[in-house]
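We now fix the convention by which a protein and its fold are recorded. The integers have meaning only within a learned vocabulary of local backbone shapes. A complete example follows; check for yourself that the lines match position by position.
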Amino acid sequence: MTMNRRDLLLTGAAGLAATSPFLSRTPALAQAAEPNYKPEQGAELRILRWSPFVKGEEDAFLANAKKFTDQTGVQVRIDKESWEDIRPKAAVAANVGSGPDIVLVWFDDPFQYPDKLVDVTDLATYLGGKYGGWYPGLEGYTKTREGKFIGLPLATIANAVCYRESHVKDAGFSTFPTKTDEFLALCKALKAKGTPAGFTLGHGVGDGNNFAHWVLWSHGGKMVDENGKVTINSPETIAALRYVRELYQTFIPGTESWLDVNNNRAFLAGQVSVTANGVSLYYAAKNDPKLADMARDIRTTNFPIGPVGQSVELHQVTSTVLFRHTKYPNAAKAFLKFIFEEPQMNAWITASSAYCCQPLKAFANNPVWTSDPNHAAYARASETLRPNGYAGPLGPASASTMADYVLVDMMAEAATGSRTPEEAARRAEQRATRFYRNA
């Protein structure tokens, strides 16, 4: 069968961005020329992604891949790994020069191997111009200081506080606290009632990092300043570490070893009343008939505000990167273009049930964000997130510091008492300085 140019471009109607009710009316940016990627003869693609927490999200991703195959003939194999295993698997592929063509990676991991990735600036420019622009907080995860895109931000997996409303009220609070001191008081009351809180202090790629960064930032601490100078050993950090030490006393035992799955399991088992997670936790209860009562009791909200006086949240960014070792770069770029176009992207966001927040501003009007009150805490994650490298630029140093769990370890050490706050801050300073020395 002969494919025409329309088939090869794999786009919807040219007017979709202007007419679709799923797209916001964000003013269009300067429209770049639409790239035309003709898949190589006999092309096959292998994609590595993280294991899903929302079945609808995975189903939609697989459906989009099948749709791409049906239209192009390019076979797509999709492999999955746990969240914690994606980072080392991607690093191995980069170092040995073989393996998956495309990987869905975390945070600023692309800066750990930028010379191993295909420049996709032309595609990023086209998509940004067509769909209202990339959110600035996401763009920095794949855009180099020279202005080149070494990947495409795919989504923000938002993190919010999930809690049992009846337990909070039984503890004497009519509403969930909005300030860190009140939050500490709630957690103390919950522990006294036998319905404790529990937040990840282990090497959870998402939940561990999200919680640790919130504690630090809410008290005014930061890993580095605007120039990339390590400033983690500060009075603000010490205050944050003293706070997390007191907060930890109210937790269920063992949170220092939790990964991304553990807080889900503890909450759904009724062991904790408050934790932080993606909206997947709510749907895990809602979709289980045995947990119907729990599901009706679950509420979500954003993290409380600390002494810094403003909302400061990390949220987890996932991006697509294309490795230079691919034998089929045109097919791979055609696939990426296809999944970011309106029909596929909005179908994926909808099926994700508020789990994946859009990377491009034009998709903010997707009805999923207002379809359930528990989605509200996740709806603006791409717009409001603070990058993990704050207050310095993202790059190899910030990526390595996060991959080495410098901040998470500091929080866990102070929380458990294995080090004093001062000792934990000094150790984090020494570890981070190794990465930022040549930044």
About this structure: The mean pLDDT is 94. The domain at 41-157+316-384 is CATH 3.40.190.10 (D-Maltodextrin-Binding Protein; domain 2). The chain has two domains: 41-157+316-384, 160-314+391-436.
